[in-house]
Amino acid sequence: MMSIFGCSGCFKRLFLGQSYNNTPVNLSNISPAVQIDASKIGIDIVVVKQGQRVCGSGGALACAPIAQDKAYFEIKVQSSGKWCVGLATCNYNPQGELGQCGQSWALKDDGSVTHNGEEKHKTSISLDEGDVIGCTYDHVELVFYKNGSPLGIHVDGIKGTVYPAFYVDEGAILDTIFTGFYHAPPSGFHELMIEQDIL
């Protein structure tokens, strides 16, 4: 049983004026709040850079669903190959390509937007290594951007709780960006917020 004086250090600091140790904390080693969820990746996916870079072969989901009204996230294509970015429910199988099932919606490296294996839209704008692809989602539509400019393609009719989702194969490497964006989000859109319980 702990007495009122069980925490003598706290007591001394509070009543005797002793100070705390003000040693600076190195924040560079702290992982970002939103990152790739290691439990929701394909078996041949490699996640590096504190949960921000995906390579290998397969899909991956972010650790947090989109809970707020208007969310924004980006990828940077570090190495070309076969890649996709978009949204998926928690029922998406990360062994399969994003956009090929009814649980995912994706922009592919060839400029096509797919859902349930069907091409819904396609842009003639090339998507290349080094490009930054932005995604906005407002629970009505998913809109894609290239280097800060709208691609003119979107997906609507998305239902349920969805997560930012990514797919790589054939040497593609993607950096996922959930904060500190390359391009400012469109008006009213913000970085993903992790839903927290309020007691």
Write up what this structure looks like.
The protein contains 1 helix and 13 strands. Strands 1, 2, 3, 4, 5, 6, 7, 8, 9, 10, 11, 12 and 13 form a 13-stranded antiparallel beta sheet that branches. The chain is globular and about 35 Å long. By secondary structure, it is mainly beta. The model is unreliable at 1-15 and 18-31 (pLDDT under 50).
Q: Summed up, what is this model?
A:
With 199 residues, the chain is mostly beta strands.
Order of helices and strands: HEEEEEEEEEEEEE
Major β-sheet annotation: 13 strands, antiparallel
Radius of gyration: 21 Å
Helix content: under 10%
Number of helices: 1
Q: Based on CA inertia axes, which overall geometry fits?
A: globular
Low-confidence stretches: 1-15, 18-31
What's the topology here?
Elements lengths: L7 H8 L20 E6 L2 E5 L4 E10 L8 E9 L2 E7 L15 E5 L3 E4 L2 E5 L9 E6 L3 E6 L2 E8 L6 E7 L3 E5 L22
Antiparallel strand pairs: 1-3, 2-3, 3-12, 3-13, 4-9, 4-13, 5-6, 5-12, 6-7, 7-8, 9-10, 10-11
Short key terms for the protein model shown above:
199 residues, disordered N terminus
